[in-house]
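Researcher: Quick test of sequence recovery. Tokens follow.
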């Protein structure tokens, strides 16, 4: 143990001082002493130091608490400074509201954004809090036994303006409740842990939604907006009031090693919704949801067309999804800014309504193009593939019904599906067909009570190769292998560092 960790005086430091490195003893005014006096002083100092060390060590062993905490974690960026939320008065009893403590801790650590950044440590406990905002060059780290609990008092959730690419709240004409954990205009922000939990306690919101008593759109669990270099990893996210993870208008995002859980009948509890984002990597994720496990978006009708920010360069790997009433991966329906260059591989759907679903409608405008899927496994599905050009749902009456979406360049290959009710339902738009569809090496085993016609197709054009059961006539057989890009995207060049946390936090 280093000298600085053994000093009992550390417990008397202020919160600000605790985040700084303490490498030397305080300066003291010294007087000239004789050699004998000097030796005596050295011996006394040494024995005092040893006594203090033994007292600290014995005290730590006598309590069920570690006085000093050291661990490794992986992150885009390591931090030079840290603090525990307990230093700002937080109490992890599941009852005390800690909103002010989290806000104060983050405000304090924001001072270090230009000098190595700050890490906020959340120790074991149940930490009830209202919404709070993150800062740049910042890490929120949850201990494995830490649970962040979202307040169930709606007064703890402030209102915010609608997203400009949506025009108004997704569920109501007015604004929206701010997300539980929120950040905007940030650089280098990390939410991670040792599989700690963030619980949105969404039941109260789901009840109010079903009752029709909400005047504003429900909040997300995590929303990062207008930001870059974002990491969300190694956490369990539970019971979001609305969409669970919503990166929007952001770039260079890694979402990795997380579990998202919500009741399968909870309303609109999407797992991950990259929205008008560039360069995003989603991998090693397990989702059980009441809606789409991953929903790719880019704005709604005339507002999304006007904002004009697509989602592109998205990689999805090793996703497992259970969603009996929705899709493993949905593209849309809010896709008016465009969706392009989406690559999904080694993905699995179990007891899910559909594998890949494209949702759009007249009035959306925009496009869905250059979509690549390979290595998809499905078991117990209603549809393996679903494309819908009549999804409806408009923000208001001002949308342009002549704004036609373009769907083209859709590539699926190396597919195995079992116990499927219907292989595919492809419904394009009259006069605006979905084109460039390619499906190769796909084996779909139908359920005992499956539909007599496994494929339903209208207003689509494309080809298939080595697909069973035999597809519809609009997708004729042609020997080929559907394309999947070999070149990697820039986000695959983002690697994690091994970071070491050292703190005198319980």
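Model:
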């Amino acid at each position: 143990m280093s000298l600085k960790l053994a000093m009992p005086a550390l417990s008397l430091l202020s919160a600000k001082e605790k985040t700084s490195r303490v490498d030397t003893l305080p300066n003291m005014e010294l007087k000239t002493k004789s050699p004998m006096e000097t030796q005596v002083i050295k011996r006394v100092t040494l024995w005092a130091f040893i006594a203090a060390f033994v007292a600290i060590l014995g005290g730590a062993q006598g309590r069920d608490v570690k006085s000093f905490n050291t661990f490794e974690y992986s992150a885009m960026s390591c931090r030079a400074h840290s603090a525990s939320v307990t230093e700002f008065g937080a109490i992890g009893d599941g009852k005390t509201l800690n909103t002010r403590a989290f806000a104060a801790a983050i405000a304090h650590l924001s001072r270090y954004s230009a000098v190595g950044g700050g890490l906020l440590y959340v120790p074991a406990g149940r930490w009830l809090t209202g919404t709070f905002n993150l800062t740049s060059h910042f890490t929120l780290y949850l201990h494995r036994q830490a649970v962040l609990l979202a307040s169930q008092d709606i007064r703890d959730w402030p209102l915010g303006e609608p997203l400009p690419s949506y025009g108004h709240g997704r569920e109501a004409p007015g604004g929206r409740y701010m997300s539980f954990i929120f950040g905007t205009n940030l650089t280098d922000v990390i939410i991670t842990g040792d599989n700690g939990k963030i619980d949105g306690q969404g039941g109260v919101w789901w009840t109010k939604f079903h009752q029709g008593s909400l005047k504003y759109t429900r909040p997300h669990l995590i929303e990062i907006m207008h930001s870059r270099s974002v990491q969300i990893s190694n956490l369990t996210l539970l019971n979001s009031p609305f969409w669970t993870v919503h990166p929007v208008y952001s770039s260079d995002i890694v979402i990795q090693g997380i579990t998202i859980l919500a009741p399968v009948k909870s309303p609109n509890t999407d797992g991950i919704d990259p929205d008008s984002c560039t360069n995003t990597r989603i991998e090693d994720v397990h989702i059980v949801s009441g809606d789409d496990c991953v929903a790719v978006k880019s704005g709604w009708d005339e507002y999304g067309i006007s904002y004009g920010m697509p989602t592109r360069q998205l990689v999805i790997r090793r996703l497992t999804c259970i969603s009996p009433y929705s899709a493993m991966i949905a593209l849309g329906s809010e896709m008016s800014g465009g969706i392009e260059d989406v690559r999904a591989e080694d993905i699995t759907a179990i007891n899910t309504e559909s594998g890949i679903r494209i949702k759009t409608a007249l009035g959306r405008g925009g496009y869905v193009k250059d979509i690549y899927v390979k290595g998809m496994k499905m078991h117990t599905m209603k549809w393996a593939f679903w494309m819908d050009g009549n999804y409806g749902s408009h923000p208001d009456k001002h949308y342009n019904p002549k704004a036609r979406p373009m769907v083209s360049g859709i590539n699926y290959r190396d597919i195995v599906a079992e116990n499927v009710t219907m292989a595919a339902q492809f419904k394009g738009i009259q006069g605006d067909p979905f084109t460039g569809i390619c499906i190769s090496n796909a084996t779909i085993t139908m359920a005992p009570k499956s539909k007599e016609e496994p494929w339903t197709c209208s207003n689509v054009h494309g080809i298939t190769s080595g697909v069973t059961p035999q597809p519809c006539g609009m997708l004729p057989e042609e020997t080929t292998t559907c394309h999947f890009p070999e070149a990697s995207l820039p986000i695959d060049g983002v690697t994690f560092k091994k970071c070491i946390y050292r703190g005198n936090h319980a």
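The CA atoms of residues 67 and 504 lie 6 Å apart.
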